[in-house]
Amino acid sequence: MKSKYIIRKNQPKQLRDKMLIVCTGQTEEIYFNFIKNKYKNSLLKITIDVITHKRNTPMTIVKRAIENINEYKEVWVVFDRDEALDFDEAVRSSYLHGIKCAFSNRQIEYWFLLHFVYTTADMNREKLESELNRYLKFKYDKDETTLNKVYSKIFKNLSLAEIRAKEGFIKQKAVHKSKPSDWCSCTTVYQLTETMKKWNEAK
Description:
alpha/beta; 5 strands
């Protein structure tokens, strides 16, 4: 029996141009709003809603997405592994319910770093931020002004980051076949940015 949460093919036409992205924090929300605004003129007929959940564990993000799945053509969840104990459960649950998952192991800063260099080395937050500082030529932090400055600088390398992320994802999945929590460093954020790009080109 198909899950009741899977979006039906006879979904009302007005929902087919709507995407929901549920994030765990401000960093991700600002980033995807930045991407959306880059495509603003081409997305006039498309609604992409980016929301942040106050309880930012991976599973609470997935549950929030499930609550809204029938209102959108595509629903995405975006979360990091960090130290979350429910990371693997959240990845499995999202796919089970027909939700697409853009995860980063360990943090989304790894995705940002891929705009400068290819690596699959396991790096904690301090190492990632140190590497970002080196390539950005300014100090990385979570301030909204700084984040927008970061996103403006890395955007020109988006396609290159997508290629690197896909290559790393394939490599990590082949080596560590069982659990996404073992795929470090790894990210599937590229799948979401590629989708947003396709929506942009379609309109």
